[in-house]
Amino acid sequence: FIIKPMLSNIFSTLTIATNSMYLSFNYRDLSTASLRYLSSRQALADIANFRTEIAKKRGLSKNKWVTFGNSYGGSLAVWSRIKYPNLFAAAVSSSAPIQAKLNFYEYNEVIGRILSTHNSECSKAVKEAFAILGQMLKRPKYNSKVEKDFMLCEPIKINSSKDTAFLTENMIHIIYFFVHKQINKLMRGEPDELNIDNLCDNMTDASLGSPYDRFTKIVHLFLKSKHKDCLSASYSDEVEGLSNSSLDNLHIKYERQWFYQCCTEFGFFKTTDSKNQLFSGTPLRYFLQICSDVFGPEFSRDLVARGVKTTNKYYGGFNVNGSKIIFSNGSNDPWHRLGITKDISEDLPAVFIKGNTVLNSQRPTNRMKSIHAL
């Protein structure tokens, strides 16, 4: 754990930060067998035990404890208050998904709305670019062109739906990159030319060619900003990386652990299974295949779906059975679609902030302009 002096000074409290990403390395590896104790329920039990022991050591047993958290940490903050009301007096969450969902297509719907609101012609061009790319990926004769245009690291395998879906997912993440960069610029005052303005300037510039041609430039800008020479298009390489259970594996930072929880508890798969979005090419079955390929054939659709259903039954999902919990979300944060955005009761209030996004509703700053708390 880490004691946060800055936050302690702001709130005149002892403020402690914990990490719940299964990085203590109590096992020799991160094999599927070793990950069996990685769950939100175990995380809550650990948090409760941590609170009890710290209270004893520091003489704080009579003090009131409040949980804070952003994103998944916000979910744990909410659930800590619900499941251990005797230990935690209240909870404050930001951008916390409290409803598990197998097919989280709404994420991409929000990304599309942000782009459309910013520049409708830009969102149309992005949608057309992905439509053209999707059609080209269905025809092997275009593989070499796609490889060259997007500077792919390896050739696309002929008739490999996994490779084409993985490549498409990477392309979608590039759009995420530009959208989130814009939000960082507005909310944190971070100067960065790679934002929605830059994206849309290029995507609406007819002199660059078709929307497909314009998008190739966007990918090139992204690769340059990341100091990369090429874009990965190998599904097997990605699965190999996620499957590597060695503690020396770079994926241990969070990817393998978090994906395991998605496959066992939450879903949260950002699919293109919706007509109300800009993208196509990454259906639910693609993500379920990754679960199976990474963690074993027993991770079937039924197993993953049961895990999501069990999570919602255990915590209550949108039906919050608790008190003294504040839910804050922003309209430009896709995760708000799985959070509480309206007051449930007097002691379960929601703060829905127009134009805001994850991590900012708890951030002390004087740069938060044009924010309206409803």
Automatic annotation (TrEMBL):
The keyword Hydrolase applies. It comes from the Eukaryota. Keywords: Glycoprotein, Hydrolase, Protease, Signal. GO terms for biological process: proteolysis. GO terms for molecular function: dipeptidyl-peptidase activity; serine-type exopeptidase activity. The keyword Translocase does not apply. PANTHER family: PROTEASE S28 PRO-X CARBOXYPEPTIDASE-RELATED, SERINE PROTEASE 16. Belongs to the peptidase S28 family. This is Serine protease F56F10.1. It comes from Trichechus manatus latirostris (Florida manatee). The lineage of its organism: Eukaryota, Metazoa, Chordata, Craniata, Vertebrata.
